[in-house]
Design goal:
The complex is a heterodimer of chains A (about 100) and B (about 475). With about 100 residues, chain A is mainly alpha-helical. Chain A has a domain at about 5-45: Histone, subunit A (Orthogonal Bundle), CATH 1.10.20. Chain A has 3 helices and 2 strands. Chain A has helices at about 5-15, 20-40, 75; strands at about 85, 85-90. A two-stranded antiparallel sheet of chain A has the order 1-2. The longest helix of chain A is centred in the N-terminal third of the chain and has 18 residues, at about 20-40. The relative contact order of chain A is 0.08. The model of chain A has no long low-confidence stretch (mean pLDDT about 90). Chain B has one domain (about 1-235, about 250-485): Amidase signature (AS) enzymes (Alpha-Beta Complex). Chain B has 15 helices and 11 strands. Chain B has helices at about 10-15, 25-40, 50-65, 105-115, 155-165, 180-185, 220-230, 275-290, 305-320, 340-350, 355-365, 370-390, 420-425, 430-435, 460-475; strands at about 45, 75-80, 115-120, 170-175, 190, 210-215, 260-265, 295, 400, 440-445, 450-455. An 11-stranded mixed beta sheet of chain B has the order 1-3-2-4-6-5-10-11-9-7-8, sandwiched between helices. In chain B, helix 2 (about 25-40) packs antiparallel against helix 3. The longest helix of chain B has 21 residues, at about 370-390. Classes of the chains: A mainly alpha (about 100), B alpha/beta (about 475). Chains A and B meet through helix 1 and helix 2 of A and helix 9, helix 10, helix 11, helix 12 and helix 13 of B.
Chain lengths: ~100, ~475
């Protein structure tokens, strides 16, 4: 079932990605084709099958809590698009 | 005398320790080769000749002091998804075009501690998403065997640089075949280690339950040397496993009499090129001649692996790539004071089409109302796929398959058709789903283009895979073939 235009826009807004009109069309078509490929999974009886999150053998890994040095402020802020003193500068979150 | 840039790691190590050559000479030979062919191959995103020559001089001091390890003084290209302190790490994305890490990935640190020499950073599909290296935001890489064709991906730079003699070896990453498939298309050796064997600390995350770092080299033994250097537990990666250190070169050269090799019929898929089929059949016959026993086996859930992978990997990618918000690092849209608009524009302009496609696919699969139908279903399919492998490894020691159903295709040929592009990974991605080791080695040519054979084994069976592949390699000479450039 092809994705509706409104669904594509909804997904893009959940993913916080702006799309042009052309992109909405293109991704709508392509995602629909890809989702069609996923229908094969419906053939598979997965009743009672435990899901696998990852294929490593490890469960929750614990270690002792040991204090270590962190990166220094200048290093942490080195790649910041906008910096103010010791802080990342961001657009205001709350309305004025 | 053969040009130094084509030496194997063993040869280079022997000549370095016996003072026949210096690391500076070896490094210069690679840099000269890069100068000569890089305009055509374009396997690098950043070339670091000054760092390379200074590291080579340092390696020469270690060698002079008799303080050398197998990779001391050996040049390497690092895929641009691995953090390198002070050197741009772009993931071939506009998003990270100006990103300069302040620390090294653990694998980079380990190579550096051995005295390896970094030549630069390898091209790739953006954020390691792709099978052709065409999704690089900066430029495509070309296949050294035919410059009109793709090198495979996503570690296309890693494979093309090794195949063209620009470097002795390289490091790539493999989430669904991204080391093995380009190795196959470029006629070199690529290893995806068992999930948990190699630390991913400092590997920019794509799909965390699938990602592994792996070497590309011109021989099985070269990859074994690199695995020795990069394997091991790392407290900074909670998925890395505590295991006894091994020497992966130690049983190379042993015979493979009695080794049980399974041939899973499902991997000889529709759409597989007849030339590839023929070459793989001949390679299997050769393995039998060398003493292995060949057993037809079945992995019936293989047909679900592609869908399973393309739900799980994009889901994880959509979560991992949520960090690119234009605040802490990376591209940041500055044309507005509105928080949400800035975020949407940052991600619209920062990500290329394939990354956007996968983030959206994953967002959809994880969204309310679809989670059970897609993500949960895929995770259950993942269990069944793993169980198929567990079952078959009770009967055989390893599996033999083609690495890719096709040889290198033309640049531009599949760009507009994501479904066709995804099918290329059909033989490699089940290995990541199950967390297994996989090794691709060259095993012949079809219409002048390299074909790769894949060895798959149970968790932590790298020694068996390397031994079997090495036995094949020394009995043939496919890995000695070189492209004319």
């Amino acid at each position: 079932m092809p994705l509706e235009r409104s669904e594509v826009k909804h997904i893009a807004s959940l993913a916080r990605i702006g799309l042009t009109e052309d992109e909405i069309m293109m991704f709508g078509d392509q995602l629909s084709q890809i989702l069609e490929q996923f229908e094969v999974l419906n053939e598979l009886d997965t009743t009672g099958v435990t899901p696998t999150g990852h294929a490593g053998g490890l469960q929750t890994v614990m270690r002792d809590d040991q204090a270590q040095d962190s990166l220094d402020h200048d290093d942490v802020l080195k790649n910041a698009p906008r910096r103010e003193g010791e802080f990342f500068r961001v657009n205001s979150v709350l309305e004025e | 005398m053969e040009k130094l840039n084509w030496l194997s790691i063993q040869e280079a190590h022997d000549q370095l320790t016996s003072k026949q050559i210096s690391s500076v000479e070896l490094t210069q030979a690679c840099l000269d080769r890069i100068n000569a062919v890089e305009d055509e191959v374009q396997s690098f995103l950043t070339i670091t000749p000054e760092i390379a020559l200074s590291q080579a001089a340092h390696a020469d001091r270690l060698l002079a002091a008799g303080d050398s390890l197998p990779l001391t003084g050996i040049p390497v290209q690092i895929k641009d998804v691995l953090c390198t302190e002070g050197v741009p790490t772009t993931c071939a994305s506009r998003m990270l075009e100006n990103f300069i890490p302040v620390y090294n990935a653990t694998v980079v640190e380990k190579l550096s501690n051995q005295g390896a020499v970094m030549l630069g950073k390898g091209n790739m599909d953006e954020f390691a998403m792709g099978s052709s290296c065409e999704n690089s935001a900066f430029h495509p890489t070309r296949n050294p065997w035919d410059l009109e064709r793709v090198p495979g991906g996503s570690s296309g730079g890693a494979a093309a640089s090794v195949a063209s003699g620009e470097t002795i070896f390289s490091l790539g990453s493999d989430t669904g075949g991204s080391v093995r498939q380009p190795a196959s298309l470029c006629g070199v050796v690529g290893l995806k280690p068992t999930y948990g064997l190699v630390s991913r600390y400092g590997l920019v995350a794509f799909a965390s339950s699938l990602d592994q770092v792996g070497p590309v080299g011109r021989s099985v033994k070269d990859c074994a040397f690199v695995l020795n250097a990069i394997a091991g537990h790392d407290a900074k990666d909670a998925t890395s496993v505590v295991r006894e250190q091994k020497d992966y070169t130690s049983n190379l050269g042993q015979e493979i009499n009695g080794l049980k090799l399974g041939i899973p019929e499902e991997y000889f898929v529709d759409g597989m090129e007849s030339g590839v089929r023929q070459v793989i059949d001949e390679a299997i016959a050769k393995l039998e001649e060398l003493g292995a026993s060949i057993h037809p086996v079945s992995l019936p859930t293989t047909r679900y692996a592609l869908a399973c992978y393309y739900i799980i990997a994009p889901s994880e990618c959509s979560a991992n790539l949520a960090r690119y918000d234009g605040v802490k690092y990376g591209y940041s849209y500055q044309g507005t004071n509105d928080l949400w608009e800035a975020l949407e524009k940052t991600r619209e302009f920062g990500f290329g089409p394939e990354v956007t496609r996968r983030v959206m696919l994953g967002t959809y699969a994880l969204s309310t109302g679809y989670y059970d139908a897609y993500y949960l279903k895929a995770q259950q399919a993942r269990t069944l796929i793993r169980q198929d492998f567990d079952q078959v490894f009770r009967e055989v020691d390893a599996l033999i398959t083609p690495t890719s159903p096709v040889t290198a295709f033309k640049i531009g040929e599949k760009v507009g058709d994501p479904v066709q592009m995804y099918l290329i990974d059909a033989c490699t991605l089940p290995v990541n789903i199950a967390g297994l080791p996989g090794l691709s080695i060259p095993c012949g040519f079809s219409d002048g283009l390299p074909v790769g054979m894949q060895f798959i084994g149970p968790h932590f069976s790298e020694e068996t895979l390397l031994k079997a592949a090495h036995a094949y390699e020394i009995a043939t000479d496919w890995n000695k073939s070189r492209p004319t450039l």
